[in-house]
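User: structure tokens for this one?
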Amino acid sequence: MYTAKLNRNENIEELQEFIRKNGFAILISTVEGKPWATHIPLVLSQDGTKLAGHIAKGNKQWKDWNTETDVLVVFSGPHSYISSSWYDHENVSTWNYIAVHASGTIRIQSTEELLSGLKSLTNKYESRSQHPVTVEGFSPEFLNKEMLGIVGFEITITKLEAAYKLSQNRDDKNYKNIVEELEKRNEPDSTSVAAEMRKQRKLD
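Assistant:
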């Protein structure tokens, strides 16, 4: 992952929290000698060392996996266009964003591990539902049938890299103006980028 030194974030705890809040990721590996990507929700373990999820059995990405298979997982956060018209000097427009890459090795889970992973994933995303669904609430027949169509996996993380590209190279005046212009848009991504920029430079 290319990241300019000014934009790197090496705070592991912060990156783990980012992954927990932005769990819908892109899982990338090689299939038949070519890159293959699957968009998928993943759950980070409590100690932050492993990721777990599942893919459709019809997805051939899993068929070549073994304990030595290297994978890359991309987690994306808010992003927004930054217009150079917001600066007090001539410059180019750019894009602000947050992204975290997790590299690691992957293995296929046992049926018991897959079931445990389904419970964790469901409980995480049902936590704010008015009437939460639980894996335990499914009939055994339905659950067994659904599990036959998926493959569970676990990734042992070997490296975390992150780009927090948030106009760190701008002086306070231009930085603050970027934040204010982003907030004027009243768009979710722009507002989130602005909030992160306020946090990074401790703006009121």
